[in-house]
Design a protein that fits this description.
With 115 residues, the protein is an all-alpha fold. The chain contains four helices and no strands. The protein has helices at residues 3-13, 16-34, 41-70, 73-103. α2 (16-34) packs across α3 and α3 runs antiparallel to α4 (73-103). The longest helix is centred in the last third of the chain and has 31 residues, at 73-103.
Length: 115
C-alpha cells in the first residue's frame, strides 16, 4: 500500500466530528489572537475572518506545494502549520496597519527607528 493510500485510509477513518473540532479549535485560537480592546463586533469578525482565512490559505498552499515537491506528508504538515501561523500573524498586522492608516493614526515605530 502506497503512502498516499495510507493517508487517504487514515483520513477516511477519522470521524467527522473530530475534523470539525480541529477546525473550531483553530477558529477559537484566531479569535483570541484577533481580540483587541475597544473593537466593535463587526471589526472583530473581520479580523477573525482575515486571520483564519489567511492561515488556512497559506497553510494549505504550503502543505500542497511541499507534498508535491517531496511527497513527505509529515514534512508537508509541519511546514504547512508553521507557514499558516506566520501567515495569519502577517495578515493580522497588515490589516491593523490598514485600519490605522484609515483612521489617521500614526504607525508605531519599530526598534530600529523606522515606522
Amino acid at each position: 500500500m502506497s503512502t498516499e493510500q495510507q493517508v487517504q485510509q487514515s483520513l477516511g477513518d477519522l470521524p467527522l466530528w473530530l475534523l470539525l473540532l480541529i477546525g473550531l479549535a483553530g477558529l477559537v485560537g484566531e479569535m483570541r489572537q484577533a481580540d483587541k480592546a475597544g473593537l466593535v463586533a463587526g471589526e472583530l469578525v473581520k479580523r477573525v475572518v482575515v486571520r483564519f482565512g489567511s492561515s488556512a490559505l497559506f497553510g494549505m498552499a504550503t502543505l500542497m506545494f511541499v507534498y508535491w515537491l517531496k511527497h513527505d506528508y509529515m514534512l508537508a504538515g509541519a511546514l504547512g502549520i508553521g507557514v499558516g501561523l506566520i501567515g495569519a500573524d502577517i495578515a493580522g498586522a497588515l490589516y491593523s496597519r490598514y485600519l490605522g492608516k484609515r483612521a489617521g493614526v500614526e504607525p508605531i515605530p519599530t526598534l530600529d527607528g523606522e515606522s
